[in-house]
Amino acid sequence: MGGHAPWRWALALLLLAPVSAQGLERGLDEVLGRALFRRAWVPAPSSTRANDGLGPLFNARSCAACHGGLERAPVPTDAAGTVTGDNLVLRFSDADGRPDPVYGRQMQTSAVAGVTPEGRLAVSGRDYRPADLAYGPLAPGTRTGALLAPSLGGLGELESVPDEALAAIAAENGRRDDGVRGRVRWVEDGQGRRRAGRFGWKASQPSLAAQVETAFALDLGLSTAGRPQPEGDCTPAQSACRAAPMGDRNGGPEISQDIVLRIAAYLASIEPAPGPEPDRRALAVFEKTGCAACHRASLPGKAGPVRAFTDLLLHDLGPGLDGGATEPGVASTEWRTPPLRGLSRTLTNGAGLLHDGRAATVEEAIALHGGEASSSRNRFMSLPEAEKRRLLDFLKSL
Ligand code: HEC
Ligand code: HEC
To answer: Which PROSITE patterns does the entry mention (predicted)?
Structure first.
């Protein structure tokens, strides 16, 4: 940290330049966005820097702290059973998705000077629990749920799939006879429009910009135009946090919209994993087993078909995949179909599968599919050995 290398000043000047109507050179926005993604934010008050106000409660100082390699990674833990990395967060909510009255929506494991972090994340086996909670016990109705930081490749393509296409697939689902009932998660986009949620494990965010704003609020404690509260996730019950200095400049947000848009441009530019040669026979097994009902081989994108193996819809996968904490309007057993594109990298990295990494292998992940996916799981289990092998080899090559 520290140091005032000349490039930092050059970067600071560039960051202050407004995004022109046509957009800067697209490439430049992406380069700046990448630098901002890696930038470690600082608490307020601090010098003359335009953008600060980290915290008071936060999980990490930069996006890259949790999304370092841009791909899903294993969760580091120490011998005492404490999670030592940032790439898994613990969410809080009651059965209806309302935040805990004291701890808010997420356990923040770090804080600025003078404010106490909320607690520590403990692990036993694959079960993640809060430990050393500093503000008293959770409310009686509060549940906890762990979420892994996902891989970030290919999100620009997913953003380009029109809402109407997703609505059409959901309508088609209503006529299926195999129990699959995907639904669009309609959310407000911050500008009063109803949009199809598609990012995050629960399809909470309709666009990359909205996802960036949520990350600033929840993970970093920094406000933006769409999420103007400078206190981030600290609740009125956390008085030291509410009283701490915040970087709320002249009543404006701590993070300008230019920064949000540049990071979103960078995210949209991260390429998806290349994927294997299409294997028609494996794809046929994937179809007949019913996996493709949710993990759609292709969605219509702006620049052509998006071959990510998702429908971006919410599905109820049953009590075996009950995530505990949830969000308003979404059951704790409902999840957005994750793209299977990039699965080979996740497996090579040794990162777990499913929302909290509870499955170590593809076979384990399939076995945990219940609810709407029960009939597909059963069909997979009773496939002839050679077809099962073909399908698994194909999935592991994605
Ligand atoms: C403390 C760790 C942490 C930090 C810091 C963090 N993220 Fe994340 N990120 C996560 C987790 C966990 C999720 C899954 C959240 C969910 O499903 O609701 C996520 C989800 C995302 C997604 C959605 C991916 C998808 O496939 O749907 C994007 C995009 C993203 N983060 C970008 C960012 C950016 C940009 C920043 C910085 C402004 C950031 N994140 C900061 C942990 C983090
Ligand atoms: C009803 C919809 C549905 C069907 C059918 C379905 N899946 Fe899934 N799949 C999901 C959802 C939703 C998740 C995420 C669940 C979670 O994270 O808890 C998921 C997760 C996965 C994962 C883990 C992905 C990751 O990134 O961690 C794999 C692998 C997978 N499914 C493979 C399959 C295979 C193979 C089949 C067919 C045998 C199948 N799925 C059938 C909806 C479905």
So the answer is: CYTC
Say how many residues make up the chain. Answer: 398
For the chain, list residues with pLDDT below 50: 1-3, 21, 48
What are the tens digits of pLDDT across the range 47-88?
545 557 898 999 999 999 999 889 999 999 999 999 999 999
CB 15 within 8 A of CB 259: yes
* Cα angle value 92/94/95 (rounded, 5°): 125
d(CA 16, CA 32): 11
Domains parsed from the chain with CATH numbers: 155-185+271-396 (1.10.760)
Please calculate the CA angle 74-40-23 and round it to the nearest 5 degrees: 105
Residue 108 CA to residue 105 CA, distance in Å, equals 9
Ligand 2 lined by 289 (C-beta under 6 Å): yes
pLDDT of residue 10: 59
Kindly give the residue spans of alpha helices, DSSP state H, lying in 123-237. Answer: 155-159, 163-173, 208-215
* CA gap 150, 152 in Å, rounded: 6
- Give the per-residue pLDDT at 21: 45
Distances (CA, A) of 231 to 201, 203, 225: 25, 24, 14
The answer to whether 391 touches 380, Cβ cutoff 8 Å, is yes
List of residues 6+ apart from 346 with CB closer than 8 A: 71, 72, 151, 353
Nearest in space to 260 (alpha carbons), one of 303, 205, 315: 205
Q: What is the pLDDT of residues 230-276, one digit of tens each?
A: 888 999 999 988 888 777 556 678 999 999 999 999 999 999 988 88
Instruction: Compute the distance between CA of residue 248 and CA of residue 251 in angstroms, rounded to an integer.
Output: 6
Choosing from 128, 294, 296, 375 the residue with most ligand 2 atoms within 8 A of its CB, the one to mutate for a pocket test is: 294
pTM for the whole thing? 0.93
Cα-to-centroid distance, 80 and ligand 2 (Å): 32
Structure tokens given for 101: 């009255």
Distance 391 CA to ligand 1 centre (A): 30
Tell the burial category of 261 from Cβ atoms under 10 Å away from its Cβ (0-12, 13-18, 19+). middle
